[in-house]
Amino acid sequence: MTNQIYNGKELRKQLGISTTTFYKFRKAGLPYHQFPRSRAYYLLDEVKDWLNQAGYHQETTWTK
Fold it and tell me: What residues contact residue 41 under an 8 Å CB cut-off, 6+ apart?
């Protein structure tokens, strides 16, 4: 199991979500990591686990 690292734009593309949905997820507690004075980055496995635990599932898009 490899854990891919993505920035916000790459993560949105990987998950197939809009910018609005991405920020909705961020507000709801989407896990991210950040070094001082740098942009946030996301671990794909961690994000997918969070989405599943939050009750989202992916058919064609991430929905509850």
Answer: 5, 6, 7, 32, 33, 34
pLDDT tens, residue by residue, 14-44: 999 999 999 999 999 999 999 899 999 999 9
Distances (CA, A) of 46 to 12, 31, 37: 14, 7, 22
Question: What is the Cα gyration radius of the chain?
Answer: 11
Q: Structurally, how many domains does the chain consist of? A: 1
Contact 7, 39 (CB under 8 A): yes
The domain containing residue 49 runs over which residues? 5-63
What distances in angstroms separate CA 41 from CA 12, 18, 37, 63, 64, one per listed residue? 12, 17, 12, 23, 24
